Amino acid sequence: MKHFLSGLIAIALSIAAAPSLAADARNVTVVNETGYAIKFLGFNAPDDGLDEWENELDKVLQNQASTYVEFDDDDEGCVWNIRVDWKNYDESVLWKNVNLCKLTALRLRYDPGTKTTSFLAE
After folding, report:
1. What percent of the chain is helix, strand and coil (3-state, nearest 5)?
2. Is 26 exposed, middle or buried (0-12, 13-18, 19+ CB in 10 A)?
3. pTM reported for the whole predicted model
4. Where on the tree of life does the source sit, at the highest rank (predicted)?
5. Which CATH class is domain 28-121?
6. What distance in Å separates the CA atoms of residue 25 and residue 77, rounded to the nearest whole number?
7. HSE-CB for 35 with a 13 A CA cutoff
């Protein structure tokens, strides 16, 4: 019984010391439902200014395709700006101060009647 209890304590300590395997709360799936191809998808922190962006796409994100964006440990905070650039157009869409910790997916939508791009958060 003494060895059994020691074994349980050792297992409990090893589990407690193991790094968490949970996904970062900011990681998000972006689904392109706009009808247009996207060549640039960028996220930046509100304090970074609007000139500092890094493209999260390895290739053009076609309509009805999705991509998974992972944040690393150096990134801080839940609130981010999001920028999208279209493949065949010289226009960008910018959303400011989006709380990524409260969602797991962004479904990008375009309304041709109002000519506005929006997202549906899930």
Report:
1. 20, 40, 45
2. buried
3. 0.79
4. Bacteria
5. mainly beta
6. 10
7. 8
